[in-house]
Design a protein that fits this description.
CATH superfamily: Jelly Rolls
Shape: globular
Largest sheet: 6 strands, antiparallel
Oligomer: single chain
Number of helices: 2
Distance between the termini: 37 Å
Strand content: 35-45%
CATH class: Mainly Beta
Number of strands: 11
Amino acid sequence: MAAGVPAVAIPPAFGLHAVAPGKGFKVAAGEGRFHGHIQLKGVNANVLDVKVSGKDTAGALAIFEQTSLSPKRGTPLHLHHSQDEIFTVLEGEYYFQVGDQKFQLKSGECIFLPRKVPHAWTQVSERGKMYVTLQPAGKLEEFFVALAALTHEPTPAEMAQLFAAHEMKIVGPPLAVD
């Protein structure tokens, strides 16, 4: 791991064979398939639940449910080297930037964020909820687990190192909301 970033023990469940071939599974409302509720630090204080893990799909896809508890906060402008992202807003309102385009999203709307294109989002409403789909899964699940395992709020340098260690790059500040 990068110098200065705390080592995080990755549970054995990160192997890519969690579901028997040909078997489906159900994840109940309000629950995560792995890791319990993942409480983030750094970019925001939101809670993530893994609905479909990359280990369920041999790395092809991951789906997270994000409960947003951080009004006026979001992600820094960043990019994913190898993953496309799709956000579907279930509750609340968000502001997104994709390249030089800006979008306001509300419940029922979705947005596609292509790989290698800088993007950011900020929570506009007091509370919100989104599904986040990554294709392929990449290392975002591990990134969320690493953030949650920190015992302190990460510095900007630590955040840059964590992003880089998980196949992402910070390229600008968070998206401001008026």
